Amino acid sequence: MGNHTRKIIHIDMDAFYASVEQRDNHNYRGKPLVVGGSPNQRGVVAAASYEARKFGIHSAMPSRIALAKCPTLIFVKPRFEVYRAVSAQIHAIFERYTDLMEPVALDEAYLDVTDNKQNLPYASTVARHIREAILEEIQLTASAGVSINKFLAKMASGKNKPNGLTVILPEDAIAFVEQLPIEKFHGIGEVTAAKMHELGIHNGADLKEQTLTELVQRFGKVGQYYYKIARAQDDRAIEPNRIRKSIGAETSFAVDLSNHASMLLELEHIAEIVQQRLEQHQTGGRTITVKVKFSDYQLLTRSRTSLTPINELSAIATQAKELFEGIDLKDRGVRLLGISLSNLDNVKSDQLVQLSLFE
C-alpha cells in the first residue's frame, strides 16, 4: 500500500431535516418530530428526529403508521429551500479542506483528503475540525467516518451516530468487514439480506467465502461489488461533478404483493418520495418509468415521455398508475415497485448528485 493509501471521509448529518427544524424552533427540541406529509393526506416520512426513531419511526414510512407508533408525534412540512441553504453552508466548510468533495444528498458527502488544503497529516484531524466547524457555525451535529475507501468510510460514519467519529485504519479494515452483520452493509437492503441469510451468509466473513462466480450467478452484476467489499476493497473515486441522469425511488417487499389495490397504494407512496427528491433538487423530468419485479424475478419497465417536465405529485402518481395498469400481471406476485424520472430539467446540474434520503 505504501503512500498510495487514500484518506476518505464520509460526513453524514444527524437527522438532518428534523435537526434543522429543531434548531429553528425551540418548541420542537427534545420531542419526537418528523418532516413529511401529514397522516390524513396519505403522506410519507422524509426524516425522523432521534426522539421519533426511538418509537421505530423511520424515513419512507407512511405517516399514519408513524402516528400510530407515537400519538404525540409532531409533523412538520419540509422546507427544502432552507435545507438547500444549510447544505451550501456545510459544503463551504468542506471546501476549506478539499475540492475533492462528492455530495451524495443535501446531508451527506464523501471527501478525499489524501492531500488537503490545510496540510493536516491525519484524516481524523480533518474530520474533527469539520465537525467542530459545523457545530459552531451552523449549530448542527454531524457524524464522520474515516478510512481508506468510500465503502469503509460510509460504514464507519454509521457506527457512532449521532455526533460520532469513527476511524477504520488500513490494518483493521478486513477484520472490521468480517464481523459486520450482512444487513448493515451499504448497498445490501432488507430483501437481499434476507436472501443472503437463506444462503447462510450472516456477516462479512461468510460473504468472503463466496466465489465471484457464485455471487454473480445469485445476485447479478452487483455480485462483483459484494465480492470486493467482502475483502474491504472499493476503488470508486470521489467524483466532485457527477451529474444525475435520473431521480427515482423503489421499494422491495419482504412478502410479495398480490392485491391490486395495495400495489396502487405503494405506487402512491413511492410517487411522494420521488416528488420530495425532485423538489430537493429543484428539478423535474420528462420521461417517467415504472419498474415492476415479479416473484419469479422477471423485471418489466414501462416508460412515457412528455413535452414538459413533470414534478407535481399528482402528475407523477397518475402517470405511474396509468403505466402500471398497462402491465399484464398474469396473477403473479410483485416483489418490487419503482418510479423514476429521467430527461431531467438540469437547471441545477451542479447539485444533482446521488440521493440516499430513503435508504
Structural features, described:
Helix content is 36%, strand content 23%. By secondary structure, it is α+β, with helices and mostly antiparallel strands. It folds into four domains: 2-15 and 81-169, Reverse transcriptase/Diguanylate cyclase domain (Alpha-Beta Plaits, 2-Layer Sandwich), CATH 3.30.70; 16-80, MutS, DNA mismatch repair protein, domain I; 173-229, DNA polymerase, domain 1 (Orthogonal Bundle), CATH 1.10.150; 246-351, 2-Layer Sandwich (Dna Ligase, domain 1), CATH 3.30.1490. The strands form three sheets. Strands 5-6-1-7-8 form a five-stranded mixed beta sheet. Strand 7 (142-147), helix 6 and strand 8 form a beta-alpha-beta unit. Helix 4 packs across helix 5, helix 10 (212-219) crosses helix 11 (222-229) and helix 12 packs antiparallel against helix 13.
Flag low-confidence runs.
347-359
Overall number of domains = 4
Q: Strand order, biggest sheet?
A: 5-6-1-7-8
Q: How confident is the prediction overall: mean pLDDT? A: 91
Strand content: 15-25%
Q: Give the name of the CATH architecture of the largest domain.
A: 2-Layer Sandwich
What is the string of helix and strand elements?
Answer: EHEEHHEHEEHEHEHHHHHEHEEHE
Give the helix proportion (percent range): 25-40%
Radius of gyration: 21 Å
User: Which CATH class of the largest domain is shown?
Assistant: Alpha Beta
Form type: globular
Task: Please count the helical segments.
Answer: 13
Oligomer: single chain
